[in-house]
Amino acid sequence: VKVIFGGFKQNGNKKELMESLDKSYEKLFVNNRKWVEDKVQKDPEYFKKLTAGQKPEYLFIGCSDSRVPANEITGTDPGEMFVHRNIANMVVNTDINLLSVLQYSVEVLNVKHVIVCGHYGCGGVKAALEHQPHGLIDKWLRNIQDVYRLHMHELDAITDEEQKHRLMVELNVREQVINLLKTSFIQRNRELYGFPQVHGWVYDIADGYIKDLKIDPDKDFPEYKIYKLV
Fold first, then answer.
1. CA neighbor of 128 nearest in space, from 142, 111, 107
2. Taking Cα atoms as reference points, which of 98, 101, 158, 106 lies closest to residue 129?
3. Is 188 a catalytic residue?
């Protein structure tokens, strides 16, 4: 018997599938207990310290891709990095979720660095360039296509698809950093305190290394005065 489950056809009966799902779910709690035991063994006061509050230095805006775990790739512990993730690490000026995270992290947590981190092999970026419908996500992908429109001549001159994709990932990160600089939260705090600094990164899943795009707001965003609010 072929059972269609979650969009996939699998051999076997429904009972076996449910048992498999239960095991994969229970694994999370087994891993959690092991993680707790390890932390307490190393530091008996570990969780007590966490309850005292958070003072993260960083806001990480990354892709929802499961292969890009913010804390693991940066070697940071719980409490050190505030995190927001969405498809293709976008900073969209109508995204209340992102803007709420940004305001809270900048004005309440006083983070010193805001990082947009993309990654090579990003499915969102690839989908945005495919010229075919994907459903509801097309509304979101249009923001990535706007980035393509801004850099169309440069991108269309590249014939190698992999090279084109990698450049598109980098350009998308740059545009999202610029979008950060357009916000009143970032502008106000930079004017008052000189921070947060804004950074653009690309993570390479193939080797695990992070590439700093070294974005200079003054050099790379000469049109800044058009968006200046403070």
1. 142
2. 158
3. no
